[in-house]
Design goal:
With 301 residues, this protein is of the alpha/beta class. The protein has one domain: 5-stranded Propeller (L-arginine/glycine Amidinotransferase, Chain A). The protein is built from 10 helices and 14 strands. The strands form 5 sheets. It has a 3-stranded mixed beta sheet with strand order 3-4-5, with no helix packed on it. A 3-stranded mixed beta sheet has the order 6-7-8, sandwiched between helices. The chain has a 3-stranded mixed beta sheet with strand order 9-10-11, with helices on both faces. The protein is globular, with a radius of gyration of 18 Å.
């Protein structure tokens, strides 16, 4: 997780992110202060739940208002490989910091066998923004992704060949028929659960394809509405704590948008942790899942 120093509304990303709300210029400093407080509270909750959290402080020398969302530029894999991704917004490309990867290896003992840099796709205006663009079912080796300006099929296919994943691409849109900018706002996949806004997949054939695949791979599907998706109910991440217990992490807004029946369905298969990150959601247009780049690399000691 990246502790922010310049968090705020990013004009560059707002063009394709319908979830962002502009902050008044005079409140930029206050926005950062509120986001920092929300970040620290969420980290504390994660640690209290027994989850190991690696925190890096963002560097104030570069203007990176979205650095609080590291899952878009990097993914970690159990064979020790690390992937860096091509980003659409120019100022988000500054978030890719190799020194963070080296610190994970040297200071925290994680194995880094290879760093695969896909950022050269930016020269062709082709993007794939990590686990924002792709929902990885790591157990079944399936990568789900909805088409958008930030998710190009060529880069997706390239990643899937590298890691032997089955690519599953579809179209997803909101109430205004605008393409969903990142797949991870409409879908989340855990060990035995899937949260998905199937309503956003307008094409019946594509919807059936996604739904069937989730069922075939043994997922309990929590089908959320477009309204719930707008409250970030799809932006969740299942983590494991030190005891090996599954914990589904989400925002307070996302949790409160769920029905009692949905909460019961989720509680039947996984523990839940939620935190109030309303300012991060409002001005950043991302939620709990976006704030965490999960580490699968093995420890070397």
């Amino acid at each position: 997780m990246i502790r922010p120093v310049n968090f705020g509304y990013n004009k560059e990303t707002a063009e394709s992110n319908a979830f962002q709300v502009a902050a008044k210029p005079e409140s930029a400093k206050r926005t950062q202060e509120l986001a920092l407080k929300e970040f620290d509270v969420m980290v504390e909750k994660l640690k209290n739940a027994g989850i190991e959290v690696v925190i890096f402080e963002d560097n104030p020398s570069t203007y990176t208002p979205d650095s609080i969302f590291p899952n878009n530029w990097v993914t970690f894999h159990k064979d020790g490989r690390v992937v860096l991704y091509p980003m659409q917004a120019t100022n988000r490309r500054l978030e890719r910091k190799l020194d963070f990867i080296h610190k994970l290896e040297l200071d925290y003992g994680f194995k880094v066998s290879e760093i695969i840099d896909l950022s050269y796709f930016e020269d062709e205006d082709k993007f794939l923004e990590g686990t924002g663009s792709m929902i990885l079912d790591r157990e079944n080796k399936i990568a789900y992704a909805c088409h958008s300006s930030r998710t190009h099929s060529d880069v997706m296919q390239f990643f899937c060949k590298l890691f032997n994943y089955k690519p599953v691409m579809f179209h997803s849109s909101d109430l205004q028929n605008t393409a969903i900018y990142h797949t991870n706002v409409m879908m989340a996949i855990g060990e035995n659960i899937a949260i998905a806004c199937l309503e956003s997949v307008k094409d019946e054939v594509e919807r059936e394809m996604v739904s069937s695949l989730l069922k075939e791979t043994g997922k309990t599907i929590i089908d959320i509405s477009l309204g719930q998706m707008n409250h970030f109910a799809g932006n969740m991440l299942q983590l494991k704590n030190g005891k090996g217990e599954n914990i589904l992490v989400m925002s307070q807004q996302g949790f409160e948008s769920l029905t009692n029946e949905q909460k019961e369905q989720i509680a039947a298969v996984t523990s839940v942790l939620y935190s109030d990150i309303r300012h991060i959601e409002t001005y950043g247009g991302g939620s709990a899942r976006c704030m965490m780049a999960e580490i699968f690399n093995p420890k070397t000691n």
